[in-house]
Amino acid sequence: MTEAQAIRRLKKGDIGGMEELVNIHQEKALRTACLITRDEEMAKDAVQETFLRVYQRIRYFDESRPFEPYLLRSVVHTAINMAEKRSKEVGLEDELAPAEVESLINRATSTEDQVEYRQLKQEILNGISKLPPRERAVIVERYYLDLSEKEMAEMHEVAPGTVKWLLNVARKKLRSFMGLESDPS
Fold first, then answer.
1. CB-CB neighbours of 100 under 10 Å
2. Of 10, 63, 92, 150, whose CB is crowded by the most CB atoms within 10 A?
């Protein structure tokens, strides 16, 4: 069954359509949410909540548009909201390291490359984990979901300059966290 057929079935009230959409998109949605929340259980909750919302509102979905960006935009918003809510409830020093994300990133081929890759990946994940949820989200959208700044601006309904600014701030902080910030002198 194709994605379009699954959407049509779901619009007709056939829950089998939702099952197919989950099968097609769950893995990428979960990875996206996990990168933003840095918590596998919270990511699962965000994805589940998003699929539930899709199920409840599928009649409003425009079938002439692609489904995946629609779904991932919802996942990103839900994950941001959950992460921000948690950050207000729990101090930053108590947050978990993003070790759960380990299994979600591809491995390098040689042993030396794997060691270097893991070290770099851990540095990046540590840096990303220090970013606020919105800044984490723009990094994930740009570099994991490969969205353009224009697509991100449309998704968040903000000016392109706002997205550029957020990306610039997030990248600068990330470079600083990783010790890559160049000395201005």
1. 15
2. 10
Which amino acid, 149? E
- Using alpha carbons only, what angle is made at residue 10 by residues 7 and 12, rounded to the nearest 5 degrees? 115
- The two three-digit tokens of residue 51, written as one number: 């699929």
Kindly tell me the burial class for residue 136, based on how many C-beta atoms sit within 10 Å of its own C-beta (0-12, 13-18, 19 or more).
Answer: buried
Question: Residue 98 above 90 pLDDT?
Answer: no
Q: Which two tokens stand for residue 183?
A: 């000395």
Q: Which residue matches tokens 């160049």?
A: 182
Q: Model's pTM, two decimal places?
A: 0.59
CA-wise closest residue to 14 among 55, 50, 52 = 55
The domains of the chain, with CATH numbers, are 3-177 (1.10.1740.10)
DSSP three-state, residue 96 = coil
Show the tokens assigned to 87: 């950050």
pLDDT bucket at 101, cuts 50 / 70 / 90:
very low
Retrieve residue 64's tokens.
């002439």
* 108-137 mean pLDDT: 73
Residue from 24, 35, 26, 44 nearest 144 by CA: 35
* Listed range (32-36, 54-58, 85-89) with the worst mean pLDDT: 85-89
58/73 Cα distance (integer angstroms): 15
CA distances from 8 to 4, 53, 67 (A): 6, 17, 12
